[in-house]
Amino acid sequence: MLPSAGNSALALDRLAPASLQDQIVEYYRAAVLDGRLRPGTRVASSRQVAAEQGVARITVVQAHDRLVAEGYLVARPGAGLFVAPGLSAPERPVPGPGRTRPAASPPRATLGIVPRPFARHDLTPGLPALDHFPWAEWSRLTARVLRGRPAAALGYADPRGHGPLRQAIAAHLGGMRGILCSPEQIVVVAGSQQGIDLAARAVAMPGEACWYEEPGYPIGRAALDAAGIAVIPVPVDADGLDPAAGRRLAPAARLALVAPAHQYPLGATMTLARRLALLDWAEQAGAWIIEDDYDGEFRHGGRPLATLHALDGGRRVFHLGTFSKSLAPGLRLGYLVVPEPMIEVIAALKAAADRGAPGIEQMVLAEFITEGRFAAHLRRMRLLYAQRRACLREALSAEAAGLLDASGAAEAGLHLVAQLAAPGDDVAIARAAADSEVGAAPLSTYYRQREIARAGFVIGFAGTTEARMMPAVRRLAHAITSARRLR
């Protein structure tokens, strides 16, 4: 049996403001970072610590879970907990008297990501056709699941997700996206943001760099900021993210977050040459890629290229998908296809985050996919979104000619990008439009580097009915012309 590092220096103060769990976490953090616990050292078991300190074992277990989630410890099944490799004091300062731990950069509170009550404004990006949600089928399947009184769905379960749902997702990905993976590689997450958060925390330490598309997904950027990851904006053009520019800006980055099928928000599809160049960089640098396939099911023309996961065989690629765009964001269900060496790490992080997604919803979704209802729903939505997209383009031509330019719109996704034809403050215009129940998001807020930001709007069409499309564009055009008169 391997010896465990002792805890003779751990002295819990039951009168201190910090909880006993917080004190245990802080002890290990400091011990790791100042070298008292070296990388690879096995730490004492939760049972041993609880006995030595006279505390409930669950207190120690929860403290250990937090340390695994934060990257200080790693779990090796059957062997125990060990100090994670690569930690040293110069990279991560130890808090102490008169010193504070550097805080992660807070997410920017822009119009695109600020929390706000649900409001179905026309032209809001990111919303699917909620008016076409398959209520009848969903209700029938929900009733069937509940009649079975699934007690397991009401208790704690596998943090990776409901087994039949993971099987259904794996089968769906094999047929629809060309991704060959086992159900064991699927982790059900609470939407794209949590998937990005888990993958980033699993492979990158705070302060390490991540390539990020410029402009890019604000919520993804917020997740990276919250994890303490150094976001490196890498330019995007008509061919997608430029790996050559990424190598110049941060060759030793640990991670890249990309949306190769339909770059968000500009809509470019990454060329095969750049996909292969990105994978080549990851292999050479020992880096990882998060492939955000947020709306890969929806194309309005052309043939989709192979996913990064399919090209790479899933060796260094986390493939991220969500049901927020294909069904409804309120379900808070998505999935992460995890490279096999990282399954246990991601599962531990997921368990530490929320113990797993709600069971009933997972069971209903599993039935919905397995019965073929999901595939049929996607076929219906592709036809509907093609119609709504054409309707939006017609409305822009009729109501916003000379004001907005959407000529470079991509053949995929649920939104268009339209740039202002003349200089203007897109944030101010978007606020004025919101007062008229138009939710077009200002393009400039999607840039990390505001000095290169272009002004315009990310205009969603999926959640706006055809009848409301023309009036909505008219109100947006009115907000633009009103802003021009005030200059």
Description:
This protein has 487 residues and is α/β, with parallel strands linked by helices. The chain has three domains: 1-92, Winged helix-like DNA-binding domain superfamily/Winged helix DNA-binding domain (Arc Repressor Mutant, subunit A); 135-374, 3-Layer(aba) Sandwich (Aspartate Aminotransferase, domain 2); 376-486, Aspartate Aminotransferase, domain 1, CATH 3.90.1150.10. It is 39% helix and 13% strand. It is built from 15 helices and 14 strands. The chain has an eight-stranded mixed sheet, with helices on both faces. Helix 1 crosses helix 3, helix 4 (135-147) packs across helix 12 and helix 5 (163-176) packs parallel to helix 12. The longest helix is centred in the C-terminal third of the chain and has 27 residues, at 373-399. The protein is globular, with a radius of gyration of 24 Å.
Structural class: alpha/beta
Low confidence ranges: 88-117
* Shape assignment: globular
At the fold tier of CATH, the topology name of the largest domain is: Aspartate Aminotransferase, domain 2
The CATH class of the largest domain, by name, is: Alpha Beta
- Major beta sheet summary: 8 strands, mixed
Cα(first) to Cα(last) distance is: 76 Å
Rounded mean pLDDT is 86
| CATH level-two architecture of the largest domain | 3-Layer(aba) Sandwich
Query: How many distinct helices?
Result: 15
Radius of gyration: 24 Å
- The CATH homologous superfamily of the largest domain corresponds to Type I PLP-dependent aspartate aminotransferase-like (Major domain)
Spatially, the strands of the biggest sheet line up as 3-10-9-8-7-4-5-6
- Percentage beta strand: 5-15%
SSE pattern, N- to C-terminal: HHHEEHHEHEHEEHEHEHEEHHHEEHEEH
Domain count: the total is 3
**Number of beta-strand segments:** 14
Q: How much helicity do the residues have? A: 25-40%
